Amino acid sequence: RRRVAALISGRGSNMAALLAAAEHPDYPAEIALVLSNRADAAGLAHASARGIPTAVVESRGFRGDRAGFEVAMEAEFARRGIEIIALAGFMRVLTEAFVARWEGRMINIHPSLLPSFPGLETHARALAAGVRLHGCTVHLVTAGVDEGPILAQAAVPVLQDDTESALAARVLAEEHRLYPAALAWLAAGLVRVEAGRALVSGVGMAAGCLA
Ligand code: GAR
């Protein structure tokens, strides 16, 4: 089983979904570390309660020294023999050098159907745009924020009387299904990148699309 670090900044519900999936003996990855850049991240308690090693590397303490922050995180990864990074509501932008070091081995979940709505406030922006479909994306992390090759997407309808929180909850339920599936593909070695696109082998015609 590949050793994965889940990186969080807050609630950690996607991390919890990864932990739950990894409890299955056939799952190709284990969550060997949950690391937060904030000591007050609620998700840390959830991980500790399940006996998962946790670490806090407070980004605040590095006063804008992003490279120093990343070196400190990588010391934790080295201690735990981490092979794959899963960003799970991790709200820090990483340096190009760090992204390059983890190229092909770091994934992110984003709450929109990329390339629509990169960045923050995705649900409010989807409502304002009047789109009828919204959703979530798991992608490999590259230097451009929210721009890496797409591994998997799930779509949800946007309803006429939706609120931001109702839409967020509908998307989040899909995130919790999508992220464990996509991490499993990466950990099992089913993912390769060709011409900037991620190809997933062995999961059938609808690879990457959980509609
Ligand atoms: C999730 O919706 C995730 O997609 C989003 O933050 C939320 C974290 O929730 N990520 C981003 O916006 C990344 N830019 P969680 O902590 O409960 O997993």
Automatic annotation (TrEMBL):
Its EC number is 2.1.2.2. The record marks 146 as: Raises pKa of active site His. It is an enzyme of class 2 (transferase). One of its GO terms (biological process) is 'de novo' IMP biosynthetic process. Residues 3-183 form the Formyl transferase N-terminal domain. PROSITE patterns: GART (PS00373). The active site is at residue 110. (6R)-10-formyltetrahydrofolate binds at residues 66, 108. Pathway: Purine metabolism; IMP biosynthesis via de novo pathway; N(2)-formyl-N(1)-(5-phospho-D-ribosyl)glycinamide from N(1)-(5-phospho-D-ribosyl)glycinamide (10-formyl THF route): step 1/1. InterPro entries: Formyl_transf_N, Formyl_transf_N_sf, GART, GART_AS. N(1)-(5-phospho-beta-D-ribosyl)glycinamide binds at residues 12-14. Gene3D superfamilies: Formyl transferase, N-terminal domain. One of its GO terms (molecular function) is phosphoribosylglycinamide formyltransferase activity. GO terms for cellular component: cytosol. Keywords: Purine biosynthesis, Transferase. It catalyses: N(1)-(5-phospho-beta-D-ribosyl)glycinamide + (6R)-10-formyltetrahydrofolate = N(2)-formyl-N(1)-(5-phospho-beta-D-ribosyl)glycinamide + (6S)-5,6,7,8-tetrahydrofolate + H(+). SUPFAM superfamilies: Formyltransferase. Belongs to the GART family. Catalyzes the transfer of a formyl group from 10-formyltetrahydrofolate to 5-phospho-ribosyl-glycinamide (GAR), producing 5-phospho-ribosyl-N-formylglycinamide (FGAR) and tetrahydrofolate. PANTHER family: PHOSPHORIBOSYLGLYCINAMIDE FORMYLTRANSFERASE (PTHR43369:SF2). This is Phosphoribosylglycinamide formyltransferase. It comes from Neoroseomonas lacus. The lineage of its organism: Bacteria, Pseudomonadati, Pseudomonadota, Alphaproteobacteria, Acetobacterales.
